Structure formats: structure tokens, C-alpha cells
Automatic annotation (TrEMBL):
This is DNA polymerase III subunit delta'. It holds the Pfam family DNApol3-delta_C. It catalyses: DNA(n) + a 2'-deoxyribonucleoside 5'-triphosphate = DNA(n+1) + diphosphate. Gene3D superfamilies: P-loop containing nucleotide triphosphate hydrolases (3.40.50.300). Its EC number is 2.7.7.7. Coiled coil: none annotated. It is an enzyme of class 2 (transferase). It comes from Metabacillus sediminis. The keyword Protease does not apply. Keywords: DNA replication, DNA-directed DNA polymerase, Nucleotidyltransferase, Transferase. One of its GO terms (molecular function) is DNA-directed DNA polymerase activity. Residues 241-328 form the DNA polymerase III delta subunit C-terminal domain. The keyword Transferase applies.
Amino acid sequence: MNRTWTELEAYQPRVLKLLEKSIGKNRLAHAYLFEGKKGTGKKETALLLAKSFFCTERMDAEPCGECSSCRRINSGNHPDLHIIEPDGLSIKKHQIQSLQEEFSKKGLESSKKFYMISHADKMTTNAANSLLKFLEEPGKDTIAVLTTEQVHMILNTIQSRCQILPFSPLPSSIIRLELEKQDVIGYMAAAASQMTNNLDDAIELSRNDWFAEARAIVIKLYEALTVRKEQAMVFVHTQWMPFFSEKELQDQGLDLLLFLYKDLLSIQLGMEDAVIYIDMKETLKKEALQTGQQRITEKVLSILETKRKLHSNANPQLLMEQLVLTLQEG
């Protein structure tokens, strides 16, 4: 997916604006360290930076996307762009040395060279030391981008030679919009975007049959709690516990249940655009009219307390039984 600077600004406005300004003034640093969680756009930003760096028809910061350099980067075969990934579990010394040998040669397309080291925290000590020498003597028209999810694992001496740019977790609104662009049905996009700040994970989740079934089971429990109260406890034993059979799954189920009760609060506060269960909005509106705001708040807090106890190794089935009794009140 080839996005422009303007499109990526919605993801990481501070980082993108800084890089755009540096490109426009021809003041790019010789080395950058992009740090942040998986799925925050680090690699995509690095490749866009490389395109702007090599593009022969650039307009301000924006690469043309059509010149030979842009097309070669899009297809992954630009001769002066080198990407290093971990070889197995680590990035090894010989990989950095091969890179140094490449960069001792003249650029094939121009004098410019660009290299990216993904998961730079996975460099062996020898590899990190080799890179350090490389960074200490930057070549003219050479840019390095290191990416990491664990900046604390990068040697301080390497960090000090890079401009560090932190990538923030993506807001749920951006993830939801991206999922909808990829034709994920609205209510699934809304739910998946709340479960993670990682776009890649959200895409995978939204296409996962298990997640769709989990959401359906949560809705059935909610209906049992509000319409068929005598069936709620049986439902927990026969459907909820067998489906959410592990602690991590149970935690996700509780998150989905929490979103339902938060939707009731959103409706009461006049924030209907924030509703996650958009396919249930009319049902939730009726329930919101019949239940006091304080009572709904108490139910939200009881779900949060159940999640806390779940992480303290309390018995999951007993926790769900107690939660059902609490949610049935009022």
C-alpha cells in the first residue's frame, strides 16, 4: 500500500510533519531511529522517506510515484536501497559488514544510498558494534533508518548518533477508518478498532471467524441479562465458559461486554457517534432510556473489577457467576 505524506500524517502527525519539513529544507539527518509498537507505520514511513530521498521529480516532500526510483522502491528492487531484517532470531555481524561493503561502492543510480535496519534491537553485540563504526563515519548522501519496538534494547551509543522519532499507538478512529476502507463491515470495524492500537492486528481480528462469533456470544449474554434474566446463568455455563475457555480469551470477551455497557453511557451522554455496537443502536437506545446513568456506570465498574480479578488469578467461572448476578440487579 503506497500512501502519501498527507495520508500518513493522520497516523503520526508529529513525526510526518518533522520529516516533511526536513525534506523540504534538505536537512535530513544521516540516521534516524523510529521507535514504537508494531503496526504504527514505522516501515511504511521509512519507505516513503526513501522515495522522497531518491525521487527525481519530487514536489516539495511528496515523491512523484512515477519516476524510475519511485517505481523501483514500490517493486522492492532499488539498487541503492538496502533493507536488513533479522537472520533467524538476530541481526548478525556479517549482515552489517555486507552492508558496509555495499556502501563502499559507488551508488548505481546516483550518489545517494539509503539503508533500513528493521528490528534493530535484535542486533548481536558484534553487529551493533559494527554498525556503531558505520554511524560514526556517515557517508555523504547516505541515510540510515533503524526501527524498533524496544528502544531500551538499543545501545546508548547508537541512540546518541540517531535522531529518535517516537511513533505513537494509532487512535481507534484511524484504525476503524482504515478497516472500513478495506471493506470490513462497519460493526466489525468498530469492534476490532477498540481491541488493539495495532492496525495489522486489527485487520487480522476483523477477518477472524472466532472474533465474529465472540461478538455474537457477548450480544446473546447481554440479551439474556436484560430480557431473559433467568437464562443468563445457564448461558454462562453452557456457552460463555466453553467458548472463552482460556484467561486471555475471557479477557477479550469481557472487553466486548464492557463496550456494550459503555455504548449505553455514550447514548445517554448524547455521543451516539461513539457507539461501537452500531447494529444494536436502536435496542441500546431503549435500554438507555430505562436505566439510570449511575446504574450503568456501576455495571461498567463491575466489569472492570472482574477483569482486574481475572488477572489476579481468581477462578474465571466464579468471577463470571458473580458478574452475572451484579449485572442482573436493577
